[in-house]
C-alpha cells in the first residue's frame, strides 16, 4: 500500500477514534441508547444535543404513521392533523409512506423522518436506535387509548380455549410487534402454551393479514391487537360473528407519537403544542375507535410494561435486533410478491 494512502487511512482512523472519544467523554450517561445519543437526565430517551449547531430546523417536516394495516388509510386519516401541524409550526408537512417497522426506524435514524407514530412494540427500537422522543398516544380527556392482545379463532372451529392451540398453526404478525409476537411469547407460557413448542408459528406480516388468514383458514388462530380487530369489524371488512375470542390480555398503550430528538427546541415546543391542542374531527374519531385527541405520555412510565414484555421474550432494542427485524420484513415482502405473482399467473 502506498505511503500516502496508508497515512490517509491512519489519519481518518485517528479522527474517527478521537470523535468517538470526545462523544463518549461528553456524555455522562447513555443507558441502553445507541452511541449516537445521550441520556443524562435518565428519562430513557435521547437528550437534545448540547451543541446547538446540531439542532435541526428543516423547512419541510416529514411525518408518518406505523404500517399496521394499509398505509394509504392512515395517510388520509392524518390529513387534518398534518394541516394543523403545518399551521402550528409554519412549515410544510408531508406524509412519508413506510411499508415496514424496520424501514420506519431507519428513516428516523437517518434523519429523513421528523415526526411519527410508531407501533407499541417497535417504539423501543425507535427510541434506542432512532432517537425518538415519544410524547403522546391517541386517547380522550380521561386517559390514553389502550388495547389488548386477543387470540382469535374461527367461530366454527374446535378451538375454544388456549389449550386447544396445541399442535395448531398460529399466525404471529412480525418479530417486533408487541401484541402480535412479543406479548404472546411472554404471556402464553404462564397459560400452559409456549409458541414454537406447543404450536407452529407463521408470521403473517400484519394484524389485518393475521385476521384475514384465520378467516380464510390459512391459520388456525392468531394473537392480534384488539383495536385493529375492532376497526376491521366496524369498517365491515370482517363479521364479528365469524370469530371467537379465546383470550384477552391486560391493557397496553397504543401507538406512540413523537419527534426526532435533535430538532430545534423552539420547533419542538410548537410540535408539542400542536399535539396538545389538536382535536380529532368526527371522521378521524371513527377511524381511531372514539379517540378525540393526543393524550400526553412518557416512555419511561407508560412503556414500562412493554419493555418488561420485551425483556421477558428475549427481545433487545439493539442494532442486531433491528437487523433481524429488517431481514424478517424483507422475507415477508418477498413471500408476498411471490404469492401475488403466482395469483396473477
UniProtKB/TrEMBL annotation:
Signal peptide bounds: 1-24
InterPro entries: PhnD (IPR005770)
Assigned keywords, A-Z: Signal
Parts of the chain that traverse the membrane: none
Source domain of life: Bacteria
One of the Pfam families matching this protein, by short name: Phosphonate-bd
Family annotation (SUPFAM superfamilies): Periplasmic binding protein-like II
Family assignment from sequence similarity: Belongs to the phosphate/phosphite/phosphonate binding protein family.
Protein name listed in UniProt: Phosphate/phosphite/phosphonate ABC transporter substrate-binding protein
Source organism of the structure: Marinomonas phaeophyticola
Organism lineage: Bacteria, Pseudomonadati, Pseudomonadota, Gammaproteobacteria, Oceanospirillales
Gene name of the record: phnD
Amino acid at each position: 500500500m502506498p505511503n500516502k494512502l496508508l497515512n490517509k487511512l491512519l489519519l481518518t482512523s485517528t479522527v474517527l477514534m478521537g470523535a468517538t472519544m470526545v462523544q463518549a467523554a461528553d456524555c455522562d450517561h447513555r443507558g441502553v441508547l445507541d452511541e449516537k445519543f445521550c441520556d443524562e437526565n435518565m428519562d430513557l430517551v435521547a437528550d437534545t444535543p448540547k451543541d446547538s449547531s446540531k439542532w435541526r430546523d428543516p423547512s419541510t417536516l416529514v411525518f408518518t404513521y406505523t404500517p399496521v394495516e394499509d398505509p394509504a388509510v392512515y395517510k388520509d386519516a392524518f390529513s387534518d392533523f398534518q394541516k394543523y401541524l403545518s399551521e402550528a409550526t409554519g412549515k410544510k408537512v408531508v406524509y412519508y409512506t413506510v411499508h415496514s417497522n424496520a424501514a420506519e426506524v431507519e428513516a428516523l435514524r437517518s434523519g429523513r423522518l421528523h415526526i411519527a407514530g410508531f407501533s407499541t412494540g417497535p417504539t423501543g427500537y425507535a427510541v434506542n436506535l432512532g432517537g425518538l422522543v415519544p410524547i403522546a398516544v391517541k386517547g380522550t380527556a380521561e386517559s390514553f387509548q389502550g388495547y389488548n392482545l386477543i387470540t382469535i379463532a374461527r367461530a366454527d372451529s374446535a378451538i375454544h380455549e388456549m389449550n386447544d392451540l396445541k399442535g395448531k398453526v398460529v399466525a404471529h404478525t412480525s418479530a417486533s410487534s408487541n401484541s402480535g409476537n412479543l406479548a404472546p411469547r411472554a404471556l402464553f407460557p404462564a397459560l400452559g402454551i409456549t409458541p414454537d413448542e406447543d404450536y407452529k408459528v407463521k408470521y403473517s406480516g400484519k394484524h389485518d393479514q393475521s385476521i384475514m388468514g384465520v378467516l380464510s383458514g390459512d391459520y388456525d388462530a392468531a394473537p392480534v391487537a384488539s383495536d385493529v380487530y375492532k376497526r376491521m369489524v366496524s369498517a365491515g371488512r370482517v363479521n364479528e360473528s365469524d370469530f371467537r375470542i379465546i383470550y384477552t390480555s391486560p391493557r397496553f398503550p397504543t401507538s406512540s407519537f413523537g419527534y426526532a430528538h435533535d430538532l430545534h427546541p423552539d420547533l419542538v415546543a410548537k410540535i408539542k403544542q400542536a399535539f396538545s391542542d389538536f382535536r380529532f374531527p368526527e371522521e378521524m374519531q371513527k377511524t381511531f375507535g372514539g379517540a378525540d385527541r393526543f393524550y400526553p405520555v412518557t416512555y419511561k412510565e407508560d412503556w414500562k410494561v412493554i419493555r418488561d414484555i420485551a425483556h421477558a421474550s428475549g427481545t433487545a432494542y439493539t442494532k442486531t435486533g433491528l437487523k433481524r427485524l429488517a431481514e424478517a420484513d424483507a422475507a415477508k415482502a418477498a413471500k408476498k410478491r411471490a404469492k401475488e405473482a403466482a395469483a396473477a399467473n
